[in-house]
Specification:
Length: 193
C-alpha cells in the first residue's frame, strides 16, 4: 500500500503539527479543526490507517485557575468533545483495522475520567526545550525517547521558553503551548508508520 492510500485523521488538529511528518511523507492527512471542520460532523468509515485526537484541555487543565476563570470548570462539557473523538475512532475501528490511534491531553483531570494513560511524556525527552507533561491513551507503538531521564531538564530556562512561546505567531501562550512538540511528533511518526 502506498502512503498516499493511507488515510490519517487529525481530530482537533489546530496547527496540524502532530501530523506534519505524515503529510511530508505523502500520507492522505485529513485535519479536522474548527472553524472549517467539526469533529461532531464526522462519520466513521472503513479504510482509515490512523487517527490522532487532541481535544481541548481547558476543562481538564490543572493550570486553570478557578478563582480567575470566567466560569466554573465543567468536566461534562469537556468530555463531550472527548466522547465525539472516541466515537469516531471506535466507529472507524468497527469498520476496519486501524494501524494506530492516539488521544492526547496535557496531564490533568482527564485521567480521572479515562483512567491511567497508556503513555506519558515530557517534551524535553524528545529533544524539545519544553517541560509540559502530556498523557496519551490509545493503541500505538511507544516512540523511542531521545533523552533518557532528566538530563536536559536542568538546562531548560522556563522563563525564556514562556517568552518565546508568547512571541510566536499565535494569539496566546495557550495556543502556542497546544502545539505538539516537533521532536515528539517526529519520534511518533518513526514508531508508527
Amino acid at each position: 500500500m502506498l502512503n498516499s492510500e493511507k488515510i490519517i485523521y487529525d481530530l482537533c488538529a489546530g496547527t496540524g503539527a502532530w501530523t506534519e511528518e505524515y503529510l511530508k511523507n505523502g500520507y492522505d492527512v485529513r485535519r479536522i479543526t474548527l472553524p472549517e471542520n467539526d469533529v461532531y460532523d464526522l462519520k466513521p468509515h472503513a479504510g482509515v490507517y490512523g487517527i490522532f485526537a487532541s481535544p481541548d484541555c481547558t476543562q481538564f487543565s490543572i493550570a486553570r485557575n478557578e478563582k480567575t476563570a470566567k466560569k466554573k470548570r465543567d468536566l461534562r462539557e469537556g468530555m463531550e468533545l472527548v466522547i465525539a473523538c472516541l466515537d469516531f475512532i471506535w466507529g472507524c475501528r468497527y469498520l476496519s483495522k486501524l494501524q494506530f490511534w492516539c488521544l492526547e491531553n496535557p496531564r490533568g483531570f482527564l485521567r480521572q475520567l479515562l483512567g491511567k494513560p497508556f503513555f506519558t511524556f515530557k517534551a524535553y525527552e524528545y529533544g524539545d526545550l519544553w517541560v509540559k507533561t502530556t498523557d496519551l491513551w490509545g493503541y500505538f507503538k511507544i516512540p523511542k525517547k531521545r533523552i533518557v531521564g532528566d538530563l536536559l531538564k536542568p538546562l531548560i530556562d522556563r522563563d525564556r521558553i514562556k517568552r518565546s512561546l508568547v512571541n510566536l505567531d499565535y494569539h496566546t501562550r495557550k495556543e502556542a503551548r497546544a502545539i505538539t512538540p516537533p521532536g515528539f511528533s517526529r519520534a511518533f511518526f518513526e514508531a508508527n508508520t
